[in-house]
TrEMBL record:
Decapping enzyme for NAD-capped RNAs: specifically hydrolyzes the nicotinamide adenine dinucleotide (NAD) cap from a subset of RNAs by removing the entire NAD moiety from the 5'-end of an NAD-capped RNA. The NAD-cap is present at the 5'-end of some RNAs and snoRNAs. In contrast to the canonical 5'-end N7 methylguanosine (m7G) cap, the NAD cap promotes mRNA decay. Also acts as a non-canonical decapping enzyme that removes the entire cap structure of m7G capped or incompletely capped RNAs. It is found in: Nucleus. One of its GO terms (biological process) is nuclear-transcribed mRNA catabolic process. Residues 156-176 are annotated as: Disordered. Keywords: Hydrolase, Metal-binding, Nuclease, Nucleotide-binding, Nucleus, RNA-binding. Residues 156-172 have a biased composition (Basic and acidic residues). Its cofactor is a divalent metal cation. Belongs to the DXO/Dom3Z family. It catalyses: a 5'-end triphospho-ribonucleoside in mRNA + H2O = a 5'-end phospho-ribonucleoside in mRNA + diphosphate + H(+); a 5'-end NAD(+)-phospho-ribonucleoside in mRNA + H2O = a 5'-end phospho-ribonucleoside in mRNA + NAD(+) + H(+); a 5'-end (N(7)-methyl 5'-triphosphoguanosine)-ribonucleoside-ribonucleotide in mRNA + H2O = a (N(7)-methyl 5'-triphosphoguanosine)-nucleoside + a 5'-end phospho-ribonucleoside in mRNA + H(+). Its EC number is 3.6.1.-. One of its GO terms (molecular function) is metal ion binding. It comes from Aaosphaeria arxii CBS 175.79. This is Decapping nuclease.
Length: 391
């Protein structure tokens, strides 16, 4: 039955007829100073254009421009251009960008793990997210473990919860549907971003952005190299924009920003209101921390969707804000948990084949089981495998 002990390293080398279990509790084994973390450094980037076509450039980068307070985040919902992956994106665009880099530099990217930032956010926040659940697939190839979300499992779990994938359906814009809540987030981005530095954008564009069509087709993604304790990791993820232009020094940190919306706190907040917001801050912090995003900019909106207040948080200061607040989460614990879990993955994913990494809803353990004895499933693209098998 379920063991509450940390599985000893040796246990991980037996064939995985039974899932190997990584217990989440007790968290006190992750307390204390955090595992050494390297500052994430960008090694490559790519964009998606306004039809979500892949482009290996910076065309998807936008710049922050303070959005107008009082703006109605519901406005324009009926023309929302909502992009959602219909097919499993695997790691394709991340690997494509790495292949180009390797060809250009004639050098392999060597690291212990490659994944989307979203997977690491999920892992890092497990200690404090009672509702977390995920299914990921992982494979070891040439010394690196590649991980991505199990797209089919996610679709199935959505269907089971009777929560169909969001579409461009147009319900009553006064009703606060899920679609509308999603729209608010992108509307805020459209209000807070301009395509270039303000000096190079026309006053008309800035004036008219409250009327602009909201679309999430275009994106810019940064690929960074970072480390959790002894584990090197390459992460790819979307960045919302720049606070000011990138420095000409390639080693300087990039002034990325992350935009978020959140419901405004009542004038006299109860502890539970603060708790709810500080729990959200965990997600904001983890997501931004992983790519080295320096600022998290929160647009506080009324229940109805009117933009009320904008707060700019330095990502590094968020854990301290919460420590002095409700203390509902601890960043070092998240980092140590993730570092220990990566150690566990390395000890478990040692052979060929595909592994499933799963946390069930209200699960007490992360489970790892083998789903294929051979090959790399669909985790690695043909382009990547062909390139890596060349001499
Ligand atoms: P907000 O979270 O600010 O409301 P991101 O913040 O990661 O850049 O994503 C931009 C917006 O996409 C979010 O804005 C939200 O509207 C939508 N979004 C992202 N992930 C989502 C999810 N898992 N479910 C619903 N909407 C999501
Ligand atoms: Mg984003
Ligand atoms: Mg955002």
């Amino acid at each position: 039955e379920l063991s509450s002990e940390i599985p000893p390293p040796a246990a991980s080398n037996v064939p995985q007829a039974q899932p190997v279990l990584f217990p989440i509790q007790p968290l006190n084994r992750f307390h204390g100073a955090s595992a050494t973390i390297k500052r994430p450094r960008e090694i490559a980037h790519f964009s998606y254009d306004d039809v979500h076509g892949y482009r290996e450039d910076e065309s998807g980068i936008n710049y922050y421009y303070r959005p107008p307070i009082g703006a109605d985040l519901r406005e324009g919902f009926d023309t929302f251009q909502y992009y959602e992956d219909k097919e499993d994106p695997h790691l394709d665009s991340l690997l494509k960008t790495l292949v180009s880099k390797e060809k250009r530099e004639d050098k392999k990217v060597q690291t212990d793990f490659v994944t989307w930032r979203g997977m690491m956010t999920k892992i890092m926040t497990v200690p404090y997210d009672m509702f977390a659940e995920f299914e990921m697939l992982a494979t070891l190839h040439d010394g690196t473990i590649y991980i991505h979300e199990d797209f089919d499992a996610k679709a199935a779990s959505r269907a089971a919860e009777n929560d169909p994938p969001r579409t461009n359906r147009r319900p009553d814009p006064n009703q606060q549907s899920r679609e509308m809540m999603t729209y608010w987030g992108y509307k805020f981005e459209t209000l807070a971003l301009i395509p270039d530095v303000p000096q190079k954008v026309s006053p008309e564009f800035i004036e008219n952005r409250t009327k602009a069509v909201v679309s999430n087709y275009a994106q810019h993604c940064s690929i960074v190299r970072t480390a959790f304790g002894p584990h090197g990791i390459v992460l790819g993820g979307e960045v919302d924009g720049l606070w000011h232009p990138k420095s000409s020094d390639p080693d300087a940190p990039i002034p990325w920003i992350e935009l978020k919306t959140s419901e405004e706190l009542p004038p006299y907040p109860h502890n539970r209101d603060i708790l709810k917001f500080e729990r959200k801050l965990l997600k904001f912090w983890a997501q931004s921390f992983l790519l080295g995003v320096e600022k998290v900019i929160v647009g506080f909106r009324s229940k109805q969707g009117i933009l009320k207040v904008i707060d700019v948080y330095e990502t590094v200061r968020i854990p301290g804000m919460v420590r002095r607040g409700t203390g509902c989460w601890d960043g070092n614990t998240c980092i140590n948990f993730a570092a220990a879990f990566l150690t566990h993955l390395k000890q478990t994913i040692t052979g060929q084949g595909v592994y499933r990494v799963r946390l069930r809803k209200r699960g007490t353990h992360i489970e790892i089981s083998k789903t294929a004895e051979q090959g790399t499933g669909k985790i690695l693209s043909k382009e990547f495998l062909d390139w890596r098998s060349e001499d």
